[in-house]
Write a structure and sequence with these properties.
alpha+beta, 4 strands
Length: 109
């Protein structure tokens, strides 16, 4: 979050995405050993990343949207491919949770 605040201070007219901590849902997190981070899609549709501690819990205070990462140029083709896989898994987790919700709302009582 500090990175986002610095960017917003330096470039007030630049549009940056905003992560709302209250929208975090641990059921949607996909853990990536390659990045050492947890990823999920929040209720606003943002693809979020957060560093993972050794015990597997997330450092939510340092969660940021993947689109706000400083440099994608540093990623290898393997990392980019893995990031696309992670994004796909997060979409599937989010969609499966929504299916359960709608099945409960519209299912037979």
């Amino acid at each position: 979050m500090d990175y986002i605040r610095r960017v917003q201070r330096l470039f007030p007219n630049l549009m940056t995405t905003k992560f709302v901590k209250e929208l975090y849902n641990e059921d949607l997190v996909y853990s990536s050993v390659v990045f050492g981070m947890g990823f999920w899609i929040d209720d606003q549709g943002l693809f979020i990343s957060a560093p993972e501690f050794k015990d597997g819990s997330l450092d939510i205070d340092n969660a940021i949207p993947v689109s706000d990462w400083e440099s994608f140029d540093e990623l290898t083709p393997h990392h980019l491919s893995h990031l696309m896989h992670v994004n796909q898994m997060c979409i599937l987790k989010r969609d499966s949770q929504q299916i359960d919700y709608y099945a409960g709302v519209f299912g037979n009582a």
